[in-house]
Structures are given as structure tokens and as C-alpha cells.
Amino acid sequence: MQGLDERRGGVTGAPTGAPNGAGGPTPDDEAPDFRRLAIRIFFFNMLVLAAAFTLYWYWVANAVEADILYWIGRQRAAGQTLEFSDYRRGGYPLTVALTFRDVRYAPGGDDAGWSYRVDGVTLSHPLTNPSSLGITLNGSQEVVIGGGGSRSVYGGGFEAAGGTLRAGGWLPNGEFAAREMALVDLASRRGVAVGALALTAAGNAAAPPSPQEPGYRLSMSAARLALPGIDVLPFGPEIAELKVEAEVMGALTPMPLPDLLAAWSEAGGAVELTRLFAAHGPVSAEGTGTLTIAGNGQPEAAFSFHVEGFPLLLDRLVAMGLLDGGTAAGIKGLVMPRAKTDADGKTRVRVPLTLQDGVLTLGPVPLATVPVIRWSGTRVPAVDGS
Q1: CA nearest 269: which of 288, 287, 304, 295?
Q2: How far, in Å, CA of 3 to CA of 351, rounded?
Q3: Residue 40 — very low, low, confident or very high, per pLDDT cuts 50/70/90?
Q4: How far apart are CA 287 and CA 351, in angstroms?
Q5: CA distance 271 to 293
Q6: What share of the chain is helix, strand, coil (3-state, %, to 5)?
Q7: Strand 299-308 vs strand 340-341: parallel, antiparallel, or unpaired?
Q8: CA-CA-CA-CA torsion for 170, 255, 143, 100, nearest 10 degrees?
Q9: What does the buried/exposed string (b/e) look like for 190-219 if buried means 16 or more CB atoms within 10 Å of the residue's CB?
């Protein structure tokens, strides 16, 4: 028993982890200390990187804020009204965002013909894409047109509205989209509403790649475009779908608008409408066209449409008093013999429209006189020479 007690004492009295009762640390004893040290070093490095990134974010945020405020100051110095009540900064960690509250803009100061106000505008600058600037509209909006007794106020809101501006030429590059947006005159209940709106623009209008290539491209698509309170559409207040795709040919150099149009026209500039589509009631039309500015500063255009439901449209225009019955019959006799039934079973007819010398014509049949545009400036002459 004594030997057994001695053996037990020898075993229980040996240092923990010492093999054969020998003293000193083992690899199992050293491993936990090494792992703890590695974890401490890892988290220390992460803290250093986080602190460095935070300092970098604040440096970028200060630069972005200074650039935006400088741009606002330049617009004000140029005579434009650009006001806001206050702003706050946010967006950390991957974006620098400035949110401006109660924003109001007028293009020529307080005496401009129109102004726009919105509850909030957020400008966001992603750190991963420094050449873009996100724009988000918040809250309700208001457009004021005219002044004095003829002042009209259109108010409304939207489910969502915003887009992105990208570095490019002097004209905007980027896209904008809105859902369920409306602007209605509170007095007359007239206005405009759209279920979905998408706008895109790209290119450098001042430097097209070649005379045969467009320097700037635009597109617009709208769904459920309505004009509440305005009885001008033949088949109710809503256009189910509207699409426009356009290419600007010729250089557009920054200068006052009348001078810009005159120089562009003299250089052979044109807008090629590569796609026009509209669906309204039982009628749909798809086509192309070309728009130019004549030497007298007035627009000229040529369009070619393929229209489904064209006789219904003519009959409705006659019923509305916008077209006399004789003219409608003459148009039907001119275009309907060339109507074609497509593979989908729908009958479509080609309708050519021309705008020249202020008169809109369908083939040889005059439809309407277009009002003269009075430009303010020196290069575009008035039509009557005054």
C-alpha cells in the first residue's frame, strides 16, 4: 500500500501537463497563448484599418461637400435661384450623401417664368464609382408657372423618384426614373400624372465621333401617362404607353440657346428620332422622324408612322371638332387604299407627317398651323423680320 501511495503521490504531485512527472510547458500549453496573440494582432489591425478608412471617408466627404456647395454658389452667382433650409451629411461607410431639405429652384431668379420646389433632395457619391452622382427626391413637390394673376401652382408627390448623373459632356449624362408621380393644379384640378417614367441620356453633344455619328442620345418611356382635367386626348385622359428614342447629329456647343440653335442649324445639325411609339385607346402608332431648325429659327420635321386604328382616330377627331368631315374623308381616301394587314392580323396604314413653314401636313393635306416660336437672342431672326 505504501508503494501504491507513493506512486499515486508521484502522479498527483507532478506538474500539470508534464510527461512522466517531468516539469516545464508542453506545446499544448503554448498554443493557447499563441492563438490569443494572433487574435489580438488581427483585431488591432482591423481597428487600425477601420480608423484609417473612417479618416479617408471624412476626407472624401469634406471634398464632396465643398464641391457641391461651390457648384451651388456658382449657380447663384449666375443669377439662378437655388435655395434650401438646411442639409445633413451621411452615407457612411460606402457612400457620401448630402440631404438638402426644402429645396427650391428657379432658372432665372425669382422673376423666372417657373420654379420647382421639393421637400428633400439627396445627393449621393459612391466611393466605388467617383465619376457618378446619385440623386433621390423625397417627399412632395411643387411647380409654379407664371406670376401675378396668371400664376398656377401644381402640387403632388411620387412613390419613388431618382437617378444617377455621370461624367460626360456639358449636357447631362445618366438616367432618371419615377413611379406614380403626379402634379395637379389645386385650383383647376388639371395636371399630369404618370405611372412609370424612365429617362436616359448619354454622350458628349459638343464632340460627336464623326459627322455621320450622333454625339448625344436620349430616350424616354412612360406608362399610364394621364392628363387629368384636360380634355385634349381623343380616347380618354390616359396614354397607355409612350416611347421616344432620339440621336443628336452635329455638334452642340455651350452658348445661349438662340445662338446654339443657329450655329447647330448652320452646321447641318438634326435630331434623328429613331423610334416613336404611342398607344392610346384603340389606336397605336410607331414610326421614325427627323427634326431640324430652319434658317428663320423655326422647327421643321418629317415623320413616317405605321398606325393601327387610324380610321377610328379620324372619326374621333371629327366628333371632337378638331377636324372637319371633308378633310377626314380626303385623308381616308389618300392613305387607306395602302393599308396592310400584318402577320399578327392587325391592319396598319402608313401615315406621313411633315412640318414646314409653320404648317403641319399629312401628305398633301394641311392639318394645322403651328405657332411661331419667338426666341430671345441675337442670332435667330424673327419670322416676320421684326
Answers
A1: 295
A2: 118
A3: confident
A4: 9
A5: 10
A6: 25, 40, 30
A7: unpaired
A8: 40
A9: bbbbbbbbbbbbbbbbeebeeeeebbbbbb
Answer yes or no: pTM beyond 0.70. Answer: yes
**The predicted structure's pLDDT at residue 107:** 85
The per-residue pLDDT for 26 is: 57
Could you say which DSSP state residue 382 is in?
-
Closest residue by Cα to residue 125 from 172, 77, 89, 78: 89
Residue type present at position 171: L
Among the residue ranges 2-6, 93-97, 313-317, 330-334, the one predicted with the least confidence is: 2-6
9 CB-near residues (< 8 Å, 6+ apart): none
The residue extents of the domains of the chain are 36-157
**Can you tell me the distance from the alpha carbon of 19 to that of 301, in angstroms, rounded to the nearest whole number?**
99
Grid cell 395637379 is found at: 184
**The three three-digit cell numbers of residue 134, written as one number:** 446619385
Q: Which amino acid is at 108?
A: G
pLDDT in tens, 10-21: 444 445 445 555
**Per-residue pLDDT, 261:** 87
Residue 141: how many other CB atoms lie within 10 Å: 20
Instruction: Report strand pairing: 81-83 vs 95-106.
Output: antiparallel
**Which H or E run contains 313?**
helix 310-319
Scanning the structure block, which residue is given the C-alpha cell 431639405?
101
Q: What is the pLDDT of residue 5?
A: 47
What number of residues does the chain have?
A: 386
